[in-house]
Write a structure and sequence with these properties.
Order of helices and strands: EEHHHHEHEHEHEHEHEH
Helix content: 40-55%
Strand content: 15-25%
CATH superfamily of the largest domain: HAD superfamily/HAD-like
Radius of gyration: 17 Å
Low-confidence stretches: none
CATH architecture of the largest domain: 3-Layer(aba) Sandwich
Oligomer: single chain
Number of strands: 8
CATH topology of the largest domain: Rossmann fold
CATH class of the largest domain: Alpha Beta
Mean pLDDT: 95
Largest sheet: 6 strands, parallel
């Protein structure tokens, strides 16, 4: 490996990678399901469900035919409370700033709703270092659809060659490989190191600080 970073561009997942938003996510699930008269999910149950977009995740907890009702409760509650209890993962700010300081394009690709994602990036002062924050409802696609990855790269003004997608789940690994990118992962979100390696990650790190050291940034 050369003395500089091995990649030309960077796409980051958001939840579990750059940010820890799980307290707010779990609280919103509890609010939604208990309002519907359903059992409150445990943190472990919610953590196992998330990653594929809110529609896919919350459908795992509600009976057939009640998904629209659940989304109608979840979304306004989330909009009111989503900026509570959201924090950067250790090392996130330093890594994103280091990528920008090296003159390398960076962006976020997430299955979290796009407007919410951009509000969060603004709140946590990530936006100045990112060329795009692409999320659910910004396009017809979600990760790991390669058209979504291509959209984010196009918004950054780069191609896939020499790029890396940094995430915490098999969705991110699939999005990277189907989109022509390398998949580097951190075991700070929904999946363990062995699970990420089994899913095909090109490299796995315990956290972003270790990943940054691997980048030589």
């Amino acid at each position: 490996m050369s003395s500089g970073p091995p990649f030309r561009s960077f796409l980051f997942d958001l939840d579990g990678t750059l940010i820890d938003h799980f307290t707010a996510i779990h609280r919103s699930y509890v609010h939604t399901l208990t309002t519907m008269g359903l059992p409150a999910p445990t943190p472990a149950q919610v953590r196992a469900a998330v990653g594929g977009g809110i529609e896919n995740a919350i459908a795992k907890f509600v009976p057939p035919g009640r998904l629209d009702e659940a989304l109608g409760l979840y979304r306004p509650y989330w909009d009111r409370t989503m900026l509570d209890d959201v924090v950067l993962m250790p090392g996130a700010a330093a890594l994103v700033r280091a990528v920008a300081a090296a003159g390398l394009p960076a962006g976020v690709i997430t299955n979290k709703v796009g407007p919410s994602s951009r509000l969060i990036c603004n709140r946590l002062q990530l936006t100045p270092y990112l060329r795009v924050v692409a999320g659910a409802n910004d396009t017809p696609w979600l990760k790991p659809e390669p058209k979504f990855t291509a959209y984010a790269l196009d918004q950054m003004g780069v191609g896939a060659e020499g790029g890396v997608l940094i995430g915490d789940s098999p969705f991110d690994i699939a999005a990277a490989h189907q989109g022509g990118l390398t998949a580097w992962c951190v075991a700070t979100g929904t999946h363990t190191d062995p699970e990420l390696r089994a899913a095909g990650a090109d490299a796995v790190f315990p956290d972003l600080r270790a990943l940054q050291a691997g980048l030589k940034l």
